[in-house]
Amino acid sequence: MKSHEIARRWLDYFSDKGHTVVPSASLVSNDPSLLFTVAGMVPFIPYLTAREKAPYSRATSVQKCIRTADIEEVGKTARHGTFFQMAGNFSFGDYFKEEAITYAWELLTSDVEKGGFGLDPERLWVTVYEDGDERDDEARAIWRDKIGIPNERIVGTGKADNYWNTGQAGPGGPCSEIYYDRGPAHGQEGGPAVDETRYIEIWNLVFMQYQLSAVRSKTDFDVAGELPQKNIDTGLGLERLAMILQGVENMYETDQVRPVLDKAAELSGKAYTSAEDASDPHHTDDVRMRVVADHIRSALMLISDGVSPSNEGRGYVLRRLIRRAVRAMRLLGVETAVLPELLPVSRDAMKGTYPEVEADFARISRIAYAEEKAFLRTIASGTERLEEAVKVSKAAGTPLSGEEAFALHDTYGFPIDLTLEMAEEAGLKVDEAGFRSLMSEQRKRAQADARGKKHGHADLSVFNELLAAGNTVFTGYDELSTESKVRGIISGGSRVDFAPQGSEISLVLDETPFYAEAGGQAADTGLITGDGFVLEVSDVQRPVKGLSVHKAIVREGEIAAGANVLAAVDAQRRHEAEQAHSGTHIVHAALHQILGPEALQRGSFNKAGYLRFDFSWGEGLSDAAKSEIEEVSNLAIRSNYQVETKIMSLADAKALGATALFGEAYGDTVRVVEMNGDWSRELCGGTHVASTSRIGSLTLLGEQSVGSGNRRVEAFVGMDAFRHLAAERALVNELSEMLKVPSVQLPDRLAATLAKLKATEKELEKLRREQLAASAAALVGTAVDVDGVRLLAHNAGEVGGADDLRTLALDLRSRLGSEPAAVAVAGVSNNRPVVIVATNEGARSAGVKAGALVKVAAGVLGGGGGGKDDVAQGGGSDAGKIADALTAIRGAVAGRG
């Protein structure tokens, strides 16, 4: 049974049982504490934790997920993969344990002809929660008495395995897991407690029935009581079920993954043997092929959901996946670009379930191929650094240091496996323990940072209390001042009754005209006034959905909870922000018109007078393209298109072709903003001008890369655009006055002036070189004998560059003849010291080598250097120590041996 058929049967079964079919959410999670959607229940967390009321009483989905915490285990076991699909069914205060267990058993064991999966009931085992005196006897009784599973196939396990909680105070409850016995060929008999390779978990049923408090760890918490509304959250691993139904050894051999694995085998000329035993001679290569198959699929799906490679966050995870896949192919013997061969295979395997990977493949492949190309360059540059480090370590007779291996990994993105492989080829060991220690320190810092971010928004109870009185009513679409009432005042994280003058507070009103930052639009500012008090509002945010929280300072008087107020937005700033937001939509439409529909929005920010727009595109824009974008945008502004907003269902908006932003969560009802019909039609909750002419004008400031496959344009609008152009006009007038030519002749005059300046600089450089050459004859006489080696050390002062010093050093070396001789010349170029050392064969035979002497001098100068034994170059930051550096060279020559 193919994977897409498994997903279809799942959704059909639960749809027939009255569940609402919910499409998969994006892999990019809306939960600020998560980079990705890591489980099927993530999109339902607001409903399961009662932060929001569920729009349905029961639901089902097949959710795309990404987990990379145990990425190092990928390929080594049948259970670990980065991308996977979680089929789930959910109940929000509707059915509970008996129905959930019955549904699971019926779907798994019903005949294929009747819509089930046809698993043999005798091969299914289950676990239930049993921890000391705490036992889920209800679940055991249902499995035993209603379903008919014998007691010996019902295994009791403790909190670590069979109890779910969020890690914070909130809902929790026992679990019941369903395992499938793969048979004696896969391990020992005795159930999942004995062997989880033979007995593989396929479905987990979570019974959320308790309110937990004081959660100290996964296994240490207090139960405050039963939840008033009990929920069901279940998850079945689609790949694990596919593995069983397709009769393959592991998830990498299922129909959506195996084709890439086979292609990797073909490209490398290696035979795939399904080896899972580390002692098997084929195991290492088989693991690498499984890594490739897994990571290529994950990269395809992440890019499809709008992620681009970068050095942080989600982009870093994607970059790591691509680079690990490329590295694995390299270790299999393929050193050329492989993604153009592998990615289309993954697309073809996944398009049956996710047609968007085929429709968007031009963009997906452009991003992926560019990342591989960049990594191949990284390998080339890292190899040079590694080869130098290997030479130094071998000369010193020491292993390659952990610090060096970490620097290669951290700075060059050079994988440790590649470092180990290449060092071993050179007959050198690596301080792997030191490297792991540094990696561990880095990981701990990252985890601490993640915990800090999580805890920064974790306690939302005070806002949830205020939300219980209803959503904040936003009046700002229609008016800029609203009479309202203070619902609550928060100071220091707690609610207070009063706030005196000078207090910095968070304020919640029943109604507000203030726009809370969202959709790339900056928050409104303004004043909130009442009887005897004035507050200045600097920011507005929505820490929980539906609640606008005003950050304010009490400028005058004292404000009290329950007070009547007048909330007034800064009208001029709002208008300028609307100009920028509408300008953002115009730029997006202009990009579509000029570059095509592939130029999709990847992010934006707009505030009074300024906009920034990120979009997917693989190369820099030409000057002509930028001019055309600016022209199309200003033509749209001049055309005075009406800006219309419409409220409609999400389905209707999509049918109209409205543009949505990757990673954004939209409700069933959405707001659509149109300019000139379908020329610009976007889902947007922001505020806008009434017609495009009210934007005034738009001036592009520039365009740049913001990560592989993404570009950014910035622009001024309205009066800020005018002021920018006025400043540029003033600059042109000033240059015209200085150069005594009309503005139209400025380019020619500047080109001629720069050419003359360049010619003069070349002439000066020539004169300096001639002076240095002329001084060579006199300098030869300054050479002194240092323990049998003639040493000529000279400070040349200001020089044109290192090449001048190198020419002088080589000239002096040749003039000193065949007797052992060394030349050290130093100078200052661009305010930084440079030193060149040259030695002849006689000096090198006497143990005087240029590379070693340069390192001595560079250490004094506060820098570094290197080179060969005959000629080497170094530099530093302290030009005042050139004399000391030359003295140090003399000391090194005298102290050799």
Question: How would you characterize the overall build of this protein?
Answer:
Helix 8 crosses helix 10 (339-350), helix 17 (571-595) crosses helix 18 (623-638) and helix 24 packs antiparallel against helix 25. It is built from 25 helices and 34 strands. Helices cover 40% and strands 25% of the residues. Helix 22 (802-815) links the parallel strand 30 and strand 31 (821-829). It is α+β, with helices and mostly antiparallel strands and 897 residues long. Residues 450-458 have low confidence and may be disordered. Strands 1, 2, 3, 4, 5, 6, 7, 8, 9 and 10 form a 10-stranded mixed β-sheet that branches.
Core attributes:
40% helix; 897 residues; ten-stranded mixed sheet; alpha+beta; globular; 25 helices
* Continuous helix count: 25
Q: What Rg, in angstroms, do the CA atoms define?
A: 35 Å
- Percent of sequence in beta strands: 15-25%
Total strand count, please?
Answer: 34
**Helix-residue proportion:** 40-55%
Poorly predicted ranges: 450-458
Q: Would you tell me the overall average pLDDT? A: 89
Structural class: alpha+beta
The major sheet is characterized as: 10 strands, mixed
Looking at the structure, what is the overall shape? globular
Terminal CA distance: 76 Å
